[in-house]
Specification:
Blueprint: E1 9-11, E2 27-29, E3 31-34, E4 37-40, H1 43-66, H2 72-93, H3 102-108
Helix pairs in contact: 1-2
Length: 109
């Protein structure tokens, strides 16, 4: 097996002068996305990316069901099925709930 250098990305940590030798072999990134979660970079940039992606994903899932005119119990089931697992997945990898003010989540739901 070989490493596919065209698809390989390296996450830059520390002094960038140390990475000059490998920059021709790998694509260097400050922030990298793994399984839908951003890692690396400075904290604010990474948190903003994760926050926006999570909200966009939840809005997309819930908007697909909005036109159906579901009852209250139906809407609760949709939130339990699509929104909460999305939040739990991301919160298990990062400190997501520090970024979410409860008002922003309630607007979507």
């Amino acid at each position: 097996m070989k490493v596919n250098l065209k698809k390989t990305e390296a996450l830059v940590f520390g002094d960038s002068s140390l990475w000059e030798g490998v920059s021709n072999m790998y694509t260097l990134r400050n922030v990298i996305k793994i399984l839908g979660i951003y890692f690396g970079g400075n904290g604010k940039e990474r948190d903003d990316l994760n926050y926006r992606e999570t909200l966009k994903s939840i809005k997309k899932s819930l908007n697909l069901w909005k036109w159906r005119g579901l009852s209250l119990l139906g809407r609760i089931q949709i939130v339990k099925t699509f929104a909460i697992p999305n939040l739990i997945f991301r919160a298990s990898a990062i400190h997501l709930f520090q970024m979410f003010p409860p008002s922003s989540l309630m607007e979507i739901i």
